[in-house]
Amino acid sequence: MSLTLLVLRAAQAGRLLEEPWRLQPQDGLGVPVPDPPPAPPPGLDAKMNTLLSWGKWGVLICGVAGLFICAGQMAIGRKNRSTFAADGATGIPWVLGGLSLAATAAPIVGVFFK
Known about the structure:
Elements: H1 3-18, H2 45-76, H3 82-111
C-alpha cells in the first residue's frame, strides 16, 4: 500500500468518524460487509406464523380481561372505596398501552429491517 493511499484512507476514516451517519457497509477496510435480507429457515415459517398468531390471540384475551378487571375495580370502588376505583382507572392506560404495543409490534420491528 503506498503512503499516499494510506494517508487518503486515514483522512477518509477520520471524516467518517466525525460523521458516522454516512457510514455504508462497504466503508470498512475495503471489504464489503454482507447484509442479506431476513429469511426463515426451511419449513419453519408456517410454524412461526402459527406461534405468532397464538401470541396475538393471547394478548387480545389478556387485554379484554384487563379492561374487565379495571371496569370491575371501578364499579366495586364506587362507594366508600375510592382508592380501589382509582386503581382501576389508572390501570386502563396500561392495558391500552399493552394492546397498542402488541398491535404495532410487527410494523415497529419491520422498520429496522428495511
